[in-house]
Design brief:
Elements lengths: L19 H14 L1 E9 L2 E15 L2 E8 L4 E6 L3 E10 L22 E7 L4 H8 L5 E2 L5 E7 L3 H8 L5 E5 L1 H20 L1
Antiparallel strand pairs: 1-2, 1-5, 2-3, 3-4, 6-8, 6-9, 7-8
């Protein structure tokens, strides 16, 4: 091994059929040429048609994002590239708008006013996952030994699916609305398997 070979950074996906690299190339081209792009975007459990003035491509944690001015929402938005489909570069040019990275909302379509305090308890066997997702200093040990995590987020289908992915190793404590939704979804899942 030669000096400098100690670290390998490979941003390519495990799925070799992924079109992420092509999307990045097309968005880069649109940014350079100052062309509006069109695509379908899946967020908040619905698909919408978007026309966007692209500004930047951002890599954060393990995801690629497009930051641009959304002509539908009439504001700057952050779009997760994996939720974009049918991307096309139009012939319509645009004049770049002033923008600041400080305005970035990492929830993309989420409205900060809809964020609620969420409290969950993880089984202590999930310490590796809690450290990976929330960080080693962002939880406390509850009296029963479980890991108590508090964060703010909008209640969405994505959040429910994420939490359900931990099965019986997690309990939603607050808010009651989210706790009830998770319980209802778990009951629906049980019925699917009970009937077959």
């Amino acid at each position: 091994m030669q000096a400098g070979d100690e670290i390998i950074i490979d941003l390519s996906p495990w799925n070799q059929n992924d079109q992420l690299g092509l999307k990045i190339q097309e968005i880069k081209q649109a940014i350079r040429e100052r062309k509006i792009i069109e695509f379908q975007y899946f967020s908040n459990e619905k698909l919408t048609e978007r026309r966007v003035e692209p500004c930047q491509i951002i890599f954060k944690q393990a995801n690629w994002y497009l930051y641009g001015y959304c002509l539908l929402r009439k504001d700057f938005r952050l779009f997760k590239l994996r939720r974009i489909s049918g991307l096309t570069i139009t012939d319509t040019s645009f004049e770049p708008r002033e923008f600041s990275i400080d305005r970035l909302s990492w929830d993309g379509e989420s409205d900060g006013d809809k964020h609620l305090p969420i409290v969950v308890l993880f089984d202590k066997s999930m310490v590796y996952a809690v450290n990976d997702i929330f960080g080693m200093d962002n939880y406390e040990i509850a009296p029963d030994g479980r890991l108590k995590v508090e964060f703010q987020m909008e209640i969405s289908g994505w959040l429910c699916g994420f939490l359900l992915g931990f099965g019986d190793k997690i309990e939603v404590v607050e808010p009651v609305e989210l706790r009830d939704r998770i319980k209802s979804m778990a009951e629906s899942i049980y019925k699917v398997y009970e009937e077959n």
